[in-house]
Amino acid sequence: MKRRHYILAAGLCVFASLCGCGKKEQKTESSTEEENVTVIVLDNDKVTLTYTGYDKEADGMTFTVSNKTGDPVNIYFGDVAINGETIQPLFGPELEANATEEDVCMIECDKAVSVLNGILFIDNDAGETVGHYEVKDVSLSGKAEASGDQSFTLKDGAVQVFDNDKITIAYTGIETDGEGEDAETCLAFEIYNKTDELIQATFDTILVNGTDEEPSYMTEALGHTYGKLLCDVTDPASIKELTASVSIYTAEDELIDSYSCLLYTSPSPRDRG
Q1: Domain boundary among 139, 167, 191
Q2: Peptide bond into 72 cis (omega under 30)
Q3: What is the pLDDT of residue 150?
Q4: What is the CATH number of the domain that holds 266?
Q5: Contact 251, 132 (CB under 8 A)
Q6: Rounded distance, CA 106 to CA 110, Å?
Q7: Most confident of the ranges 32-36, 101-105, 141-145
Q8: What pLDDT digit, counting tens, does each position of 60-104 carry?
Q9: Contact (CB, 8 A) for 114 and 107
Q10: Within 13 A of 2's CA, how many CA atoms are on the CB side?
Q11: What integer pLDDT is reported at residue 11 of this predicted model?
Q12: Residue 50 falls inside a structural domain
C-alpha cells in the first residue's frame, strides 16, 4: 500500500507545554452505581458471559463465565471501551470443560459502567484462538442506554497535533511508565479512531533533534474510541524538534496507512504571547 505523508508544521508547542506536565493519575468514570444486576452480555454455543455487578473494592466489573465446550479454555477481553477510551483490562479466567466461575474484570473505574463495548476472545489450552466476539452497546444497568461511542474531546492542556479522516492525534503530557529501574519517561499521546473498526497504532520511527530513536509502544482503539500511545525517548527535556512516523493497522495486522508528523516543540507560539 502506498504510503501517504502528512507534514504537520503548524508551529505547535508540544514540548514547551509538555515540560511542565507531569503524570496525572486519572480513573475513568461512568453514570450508574447499580450493583445487584444480572445482564447476559454474550450467549452462544461456546460461552455465556453474565454481568453481575460492580465490585468497588476490586475496582472492576464482576462476571459469571460459563464454558459450554468440552475442552479447557481461557476467556478474556482483548479490548474494552470505557467512557470513550479503549483499554486492555485484567480479565482472563481459565475454565475447565463445562465449568462455570465468577471473576472480576479490573478496569480502574470510579463507578459502575453503564454501557459495555469490547471484544471477547476464547483460546484453547494450546493458546489458539477458537472464537472472538464483539460486544456492542450492552446496557449493564438493565435499562436502555445510549451508544457507548463518544466524540473525541481534547483534555485540558492537551494539544492536537494531527487530524485526518481516519485518526486524530493529541499530545497529553509526560508520563512515567513502569517502576524502579524499569521506569521509562515517555511522551503521552491519544489516538482517536474515526473509523468503525478496531485499529492498531504505533510510532514506526521517531527523530529527536534529527537523531533516530526506536519507539517500542503500540496501542489499540475500537471504532470511535481512543487509545493511549506512549512514545519513549531518551531525554524529553532536551527535545528541540520531534518528527514521528505513525502507522495504523487493522486487527489482522494489515497496514491501513502511514503518516509522517513533524511536531515543532520549541519555541512555542503559545509561549510568545
Answers
A1: 139
A2: no
A3: 57
A4: 2.60.40.2550
A5: no
A6: 11
A7: 101-105
A8: 889 999 999 999 999 999 899 987 889 988 888 999 999 999 998
A9: no
A10: 2
A11: 33
A12: yes
Q: Cα separation of 194 and 164, whole Å?
A: 9
Helix (H, G, I), strand (E, B) or coil at 272: helix
Contact between residue 233 and residue 187 where contact means Cβ atoms under 8 Å apart = yes
* Residues present in the chain in total: 273
How many CA within 13 A on the CB side of residue 48? 12
How far apart are the C-alpha atoms of 147 and 98, rounded to whole Å?
A: 33
Q: Which of 79, 101, 105 is nearest to 92 (CA)?
A: 105
Rounded Cα distance between 183 and 121, Å, is 30
Q: Is residue 110 part of a domain?
A: yes
Long-range contacts of 134-139 (CB under 8 A, 24+ apart): 135/41, 135/42, 138/39, 138/41, 138/51, 139/39, 139/114, 139/115
Whether the per-residue pLDDT at 273 is higher than 50: the answer is no
- 166 within 8 A of 257, measured Cβ to Cβ: yes
Cell of 261: 508528523
pLDDT at residue 17 in the model: 44
Whether 134 and 162 share a structural domain: no
